[in-house]
Amino acid sequence: MERTLVLCKPDAVQRGLVGQILTRFEQKGLKLVGMKLRQFPKELLEQHYSDHKERPFFPSLVGFMGSGPVVAMALEGIDAIAVVRGLMGKTNAREAAPGTIRGDLGMSFSNNLVHGSDSAESAAKELALFFPGADELVDWTPCTLEWSYSVG
Ligand code: GDP
Ligand code: MG
């Protein structure tokens, strides 16, 4: 099992798409193990996107992410990191395939609705950043587990 960080970006919250986005992850069979809505401080967002700090769009990206509330979720499942990235679609929403979140719901490169961790290292770093408390992520067993994964 893997855990990954998903953010519903400010455009998703403003457009009232958080429920639809969460539904896609739930329907796929990913387990929600943490969730919060916050307007996150600039310092945290700069740390979150530190890999991009030399890129020209870094200030506008951090500004956008801090411009309104964001919903942060921790999702768990087999290959959760890659599965989430697949459901999100390509970064530029105009190029994202139909059927993906960005492909179905967005038209922008920057305001592209969702973030998902891109590797095990990023997931560990990002989950610790957005869910620092020891009790913020919950271990639980969905009654659908065997039916979703055919395990056991
Ligand atoms: P992601 O992993 O698919 O979210 O994409 P990246 O890690 O490459 O970039 C992080 C975020 O920065 C993207 O989701 C976009 O919101 C934004 N972004 C990336 N590249 C560009 C760009 O060339 N221009 C602008 N305006 N925003 C960008
Ligand atoms: Mg990325």
TrEMBL record:
Source species, domain of life: Bacteria
Domain Nucleoside diphosphate kinase-like, residue spans: 1-138
Main location: cytoplasm
Catalysis: reaction(s): a 2'-deoxyribonucleoside 5'-diphosphate + ATP = a 2'-deoxyribonucleoside 5'-triphosphate + ADP; a ribonucleoside 5'-diphosphate + ATP = a ribonucleoside 5'-triphosphate + ADP
Annotated keywords: ATP-binding, Cytoplasm, Kinase, Magnesium, Metal-binding, Nucleotide metabolism, Nucleotide-binding, Phosphoprotein, Transferase
Group of enzyme by EC: transferase
Record-linked SUPFAM superfamilies: Nucleoside diphosphate kinase, NDK (SSF54919)
SMART domains: NDK
Cellular localization per UniProt: Cytoplasm
The EC number(s) this enzyme carries: 2.7.4.6
UniProt: ATP binding residues: 9, 57, 85, 91, 102, 112
Gene Ontology MF terms: ATP binding; metal ion binding; nucleoside diphosphate kinase activity
Family annotation (Pfam families): NDK
Subunit structure and binding partners: Homotetramer.
Function: Major role in the synthesis of nucleoside triphosphates other than ATP. The ATP gamma phosphate is transferred to the NDP beta phosphate via a ping-pong mechanism, using a phosphorylated active-site intermediate.
Entry protein name: Nucleoside diphosphate kinase
Encoding gene (name): ndk
